[in-house]
Structure to design on (539 residues):
């Protein structure tokens, strides 16, 4: 029993050591993940609307389908999703790319410092 | 709590810790990345929708885009059921669209036939069927059948009532068909229309006839003038003095002083009408094109002014304002929906494509066509093309813009002779 407890303590200590030694998650990483997730969401929803052939209802823009009907609603929904896909998706992807570059540059800058400090402590 | 509300708003990007804790340099980095990405993408978006101009315009041959669009409507007009379905759709919203789609389609087909003589027989058959169908409807149901409801009431200033909107466009169709290939039975029909139009126009101090009760539209009157010129070159009649007097009158009485552009609608006595008291994109682009057959210099001047006051481009996307900045009117069936801030009108932009094409303004045309690819929702299927965001009259205007050239050249060459 006593030796078992000792063993658990040793494992916990080892885990803590591993956690402490693994590099911390960069604060921009979750943002990048969110940007990518949202970009994918915009694209998938638009693709679905496109596959459902909602494009046919965009005649509402020329006033052929009068406002207030179900068809016109579908046309407006498709138009909004199209704008989301055309404007938002690329912007989110580009922003994610830019932030990834920032993260990489930041990691690179911090690495030499980390190795220098480990040399000193060693 | 804050996190949940962000998620509720669907703004998962902003649910990240970085955005709701005290701003750090990373918060600013993330916002800066979004702003930079937005600016960069906005600047290059248009290039994804820009197409080679030769796809839409060609000096002699039929451009591929025009051919694909023509195939769609040749199929519609070759099939009685399809045709009726399309026309009914138009009439539900606006009977004028039914009528105008016929005119633009006939003009497009006439140009198509002149560009490719091998298609002449097919084109003539379709044009004849359109003219026959239009004349039958007019004689059975009256000219009011093609007018909006307020055209059915009384109040016409000139009697017997008649609309230059209907007379002018029918005359234009007849003349275009005869210029393409002479058809003897159309000669008296055209002569009679021209006589009727001129006698009605002469009864107004501004030499303009009513399209609707006590409402003269520049659009319709310039169409009538173009058809009169075409009748002159076809039959050897001479209305040059009348046409010159019309232009002189218009310069004096129908031009808005601020912009120098012709106003859109006025009473028989020339008083500006509330529905079109100033220049409008949905009128002036077409009017300047029609005036090319009446007075080339005046037409060029009107186009140049309209281009300056109404033609716009934003991030590579071209559009036309419905009204000049500072003299906005109210939205109506002609303007269609007008986009706030920009003042952009769908119908004015469609007609601007026609004007930019006929006045060889390639720079503006390119930006307009980029917008068309972006927001027109083109659907290509089995070699056929149609713009989903448009309708039959919109597509007919676009088709005419892609085909235009040989018909007006023919009239000009006959005028010189």
């Amino acid at each position: 029993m006593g030796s078992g407890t000792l063993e658990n303590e040793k494992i916990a200590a080892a885990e803590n050591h591993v956690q402490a030694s693994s590099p911390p998650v960069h604060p921009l990483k979750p943002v990048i993940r969110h940007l990518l997730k949202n970009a994918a969401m915009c694209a998938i929803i638009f693709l679905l609307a496109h596959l459902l052939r909602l494009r046919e209802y965009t005649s509402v823009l020329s006033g052929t389908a009068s406002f207030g009907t179900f068809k016109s609603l579908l046309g407006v929904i498709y138009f909004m999703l199209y704008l989301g896909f055309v404007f938002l998706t690329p912007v989110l992807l580009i922003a994610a790319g830019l932030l990834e570059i920032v993260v990489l540059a930041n990691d690179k800058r911090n690495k030499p410092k980390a190795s220098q400090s480990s040399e000193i402590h060693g | 709590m804050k996190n949940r509300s962000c998620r509720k708003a669907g703004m998962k990007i902003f649910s990240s810790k970085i955005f709701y804790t005290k701003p750090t340099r990373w918060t600013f980095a993330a916002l800066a990345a979004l702003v930079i990405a937005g600016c960069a993408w906005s600047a290059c978006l248009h290039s994804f929708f820009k197409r080679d101009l030769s796809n839409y315009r060609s000096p002699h041959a039929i451009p591929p885009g025009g051919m694909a669009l023509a195939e769609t409507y040749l199929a519609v007009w070759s099939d009685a059921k399809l045709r009726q379905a399309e026309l009914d759709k138009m009439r539900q919203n606006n009977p004028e669209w039914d009528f105008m789609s016929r005119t633009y389609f006939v003009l497009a087909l006439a140009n198509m036939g002149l560009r490719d003589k091998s298609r002449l027989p097919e084109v003539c058959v379709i044009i004849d069927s359109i003219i026959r169908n239009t004349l039958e409807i007019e004689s059975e149901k009256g000219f009011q059948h093609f007018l909006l409801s307020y055209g059915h009431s009384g109040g016409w200033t000139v009697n017997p009532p008649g609309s230059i909107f209907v007379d002018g466009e029918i005359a234009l169709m007849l003349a275009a068909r005869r210029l393409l290939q002479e058809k003897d039975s159309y000669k008296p029909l055209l002569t009679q229309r021209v006589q009727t139009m001129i006698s009605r126009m002469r009864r107004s101090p501004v030499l303009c006839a009513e399209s609707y009760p006590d409402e003269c539209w520049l659009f319709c009157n310039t169409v009538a003038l173009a058809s009169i010129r075409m009748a002159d070159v076809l039959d050897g009649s001479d209305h040059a003095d009348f046409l010159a007097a019309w232009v002189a009158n218009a310069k004096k009485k129908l031009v808005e002083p601020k912009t120098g552009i012709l106003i859109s609608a006025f009473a028989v006595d020339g008083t500006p009408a509330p529905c079109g008291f100033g220049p409008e994109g949905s009128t002036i682009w077409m009017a300047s094109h029609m005036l090319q057959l009446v007075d080339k210099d005046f037409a060029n001047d009107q186009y140049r002014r309209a281009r300056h006051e109404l033609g716009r481009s934003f991030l590579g996307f071209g559009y036309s304002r419905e009204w000049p900045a500072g003299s906005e009117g109210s939205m109506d069936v002609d303007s269609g929906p007008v986009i706030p801030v920009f003042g952009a009108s769908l119908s004015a932009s469609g007609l601007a494509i026609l004007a930019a094409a006929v006045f060889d303004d390639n720079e503006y045309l390119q930006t307009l066509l980029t917008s068309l690819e972006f927001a027109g929702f083109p659907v290509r299927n089995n070699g056929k093309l149609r713009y989903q965001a448009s309708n039959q009259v919109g597509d007919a205007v676009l088709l005419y813009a892609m085909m235009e050239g040989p018909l007006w050249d023919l009239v000009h060459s006959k005028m010189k002779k």
In short: Residues 27-121 of chain A form one domain.
